[in-house]
Amino acid sequence: MTPAARVQAAIEILDLVIAAARNNGAPADRIVADWFKARRFAGSGDRRAVRDLVFRTIRACGEVPENGRAAMLLLAAGDATLSDLFDGSRHAPAPIASHEVPAHSGVAPAWLVEALALSGIDGPEATALLDRAPLDIRVNMLRAGRAELPPGGERTVAPNGWRYPHGTPIEDTAAWREGMIEVQDTGSQLACEAASARPGESVIDLCAGGGGKTLALAAAMEGLGRLLATDTDRTRLSRLPPRAERAGANLIEIRLLDPNREAQQLADWQGQADAVLVDAPCSGTGTWRRNPEARWRLTPSQLERYVAVQARLLDVAATLVRPGGRLIYVTCSLLDAEGAGQAQAFLDRVGPGWTAEPLALPAGRPRGPGVRLTPGHDGTDGFFIARFRAL
Hints:
four-stranded antiparallel beta sheet, 17% strand
């Protein structure tokens, strides 16, 4: 592909990404992969260049662009080399007309920029949400010593964490194949540290998803005790068994739940758990470094629904914790409505039978009853973490 053809390809992909964002379609990563599956003529260099161009453009646009061309014009406005490729030659984009208006730049749609600012995320903290994320791994102590760590990494503040440059082919390594390491952001690892899971305990990962945090809890428990992983998403939960087998996490029990029936289906655990981790569904504002088009998908009404679901899951989780046990609330959001505000609302509902515990994590800053980690301050994905104790 010529450089101009790569630009036109990126425009076509951006059209698909924008349509998907408006209609809750596939994520950008999958759209890019599917586009190239149908175009086998593109070499690996073409795929890398086009993908990079697509995601650079997504990160540059604040509001949802009108179309892919308008989005690319924003990037071209500050790059003469790129704008010169709009030359109308074969497979190239048409020349730029004087009346064409580029898409708007910015961190996010205006309503989200305001919500983030009200939650203390603005200026450099806001722009850092769109940086490229590094690749973090967690050494799995259940398999420690089976293989050497890949070269090129450096320690993180997480006890078993290492960081590698973006794009490191970590899943091609013997350490990954043999279950010695798992890909997991440092902030996510610290959220698991906040759970303080110990060998022999009874622990629930209430919103386990694909099981990344479940595996970290299993390692902290040294394979001893009971660890129940639950979720209402069958597809995501189905990814956990092969991951658990590779990691040697044999203590994990898996239970698929029905939405809004979690309490009934967990009645056998009522008042039994030493710890319940609620990694609740959320807006994902802390993960834009990995999914920059996600900021185009979120709406105020969707945010309200997330907040309602989080509150309901916290109330369900509270019934599962034994006296003296702990409830750990985590969201990968930087909005106070899903973080500090949600945690305080829980304390207000449950009254004097619960208390928020201080967290001595090696990263993050206090925010309400918990701690918040941000890409700009901590170099991790954005997280809010709180731990409550049942008295």
